[in-house]
Amino acid sequence: MPHTAEYINFEGTSNNVEITSILSGGYNHPLLREWQNERQLTTNMLIFPIFLSDIEDDETAIDSLPNIKRFGVNKIVAYLKPLVEKGLRSVILFGVPLKEGAKDAYGTNADDPNGPVIQGIKILKKNFPNLYIICDVCLCEYTSHGHCGILDDSGAIDLNPSVSRIAAVAINYAKAGAHCVAPSDMIDGRIQMIKKGLLSNGLANKTFVLSYSAKFSGNLYGPFRDAACSSPSSGDRKCYQLPSGGRGLARRALKRDLQEGADGIIVKPSTFYLDIMRDAAEICHDLPVCAYHVSGEFAMLHAAAEKNVVDLKTIVLESHQGFLRAGARLIITYFAPELLDWLKESQ
Ligand SMILES: NCc1[nH]cc(CCC(=O)O)c1CC(=O)O
Ligand SMILES: [Zn+2]
Ligand SMILES: [Zn+2]
Questions:
Q1: How many CB atoms lie within 10 A of CB 307?
Q2: Residues with beta carbon < 5 A to ion ligand 3?
Q3: Is 255 a catalytic residue?
Q4: Residue 330 has pLDDT above 80, yes or no
Q5: Ligand 1 pocket: which of 136, 190, 221 to mutate (most atoms within 8 A of CB)
Q6: Burial 222-243 (b: 16+ CB within 10 A, else e)
Q7: Which CATH class is domain 39-345?
Q8: 339 CA to middle of ligand 3, Å?
Q9: Looking at ligand 1, which atom is closest to the CA of residue 295?
Q10: Which secondary-structure segment (H or E) carries 137?
């Protein structure tokens, strides 16, 4: 029988099968599965959170954050060196004042020129000239009451002094050489104030303003508060962080921060807020959207892996791929050190 198409028997083929019904031909090879990724996870997307305390020789493990330590300025370079050599491109700094009397009602030490953040910026820039340095901007680590702004007599956030103080801190970080400032306080109006302050100090063209625009109040920040010693001493953050059901509020905050001049925006937490990430990618489509995989999410994946409920590498790659699929282009993640290795392995 001649081997031509005419003689192929189609008789067993069902009449109502559609030519669009078979999808597996599109992903039956490892390369095809990569082709199907609209956005590939790469090391240049990773931002690693760093806790810097005011004890210069500090190197303290944090029980609730596996593999993460708090460092003093004398210890941070040795810790980061192998990570930078492996391709780490960016860090976000959090200052942790531990010394007696370091906290007050105004968060005065947030921008102490001799404090860990400003000293940290200088040391990191000197030792790692190509490392991109982001500073989280907030008062909660530095206030005696542990809230993210300045309080009025009733104990509520006092809007004007809070926004002025947060903007001043951001500008002082930028003056010290931070490439990027990321206000995480969620107090209304701070993006505009920071932008204006940067402009009047000749820093607007040198500084990226990465706004935590959609930051939700919930139960996922506990390990961070252990690491940063920043739990509020009374009350909670529900009057400035968004309620978890507040998709409309998040959309309004995204539009507002876009209009106030944010250069990039953060959605936080990540795994439980993928709809908000998609909203962010649509509303702020001309800006990079950053997912913050927060401390509670990190600790949960570790705990599940320890119980053999999940395989750590597989679940981390899957969750981080999810952020990209939802529209994120950057990821703040405590898994950055592991991902530097895992992404290399998969190449
Ligand atoms: N404003 C402080 C701040 N900046 C980043 C985080 C959380 C990060 C994490 O959980 O990993 C928090 C905690 C909070 O708002 O209570
Ligand atoms: Zn705060
Ligand atoms: Zn913060």
A1: 8
A2: 136, 138, 184
A3: no
A4: yes
A5: 221
A6: bbbbbbbbbeeeeeebeebbbe
A7: alpha beta
A8: 23
A9: 11
A10: strand 132-137
Reply yes or no on whether 238 is catalytic: no
pLDDT in tens, 61-114: 999 999 999 999 999 999 999 999 999 999 999 999 999 999 999 999 999 999
Q: How far is residue 81 from each of residues 6, 75, 85, 88, 335, measured CA to CA in Å?
A: 66, 11, 6, 9, 17
Q: Cα–Cα distances in Å, from 99 out to 94, 115, 173, 207?
A: 16, 11, 21, 30
Per-residue tokens: 153: 């007599």
Instruction: Please give the Cα distance from 207 to 74 (Å, whole number).
Output: 26
Q: Which of 335, 214, 223 is nearest to 267 (CA)?
A: 214
Q: Where are the domains of the chain?
A: 39-345
Query: Which of 211, 230, 270, 298 is the best mutation target for the ligand 1 pocket, counting ligand atoms within 8 Å of the beta carbon and taking the most?
Result: 230
Query: What is the CA(13)–ligand 2 centre distance, in A?
Result: 64
Could you give phi then psi for residue 307, rounded to 5 degrees?
Answer: -85, 5
The identity of residue 288, as a single letter, is P
The pLDDT tens digits of the residues spanning 123-175 come to 999 999 999 999 999 999 999 999 999 999 999 999 999 999 999 999 999 99
Ligand 1 first shell, C-beta below 6 A: 136, 138, 140, 148, 184, 221, 224-225, 294-295
Q: Is 9 helix (H, G, I), strand (E, B) or coil?
A: coil
The pLDDT value given to residue 65: 96
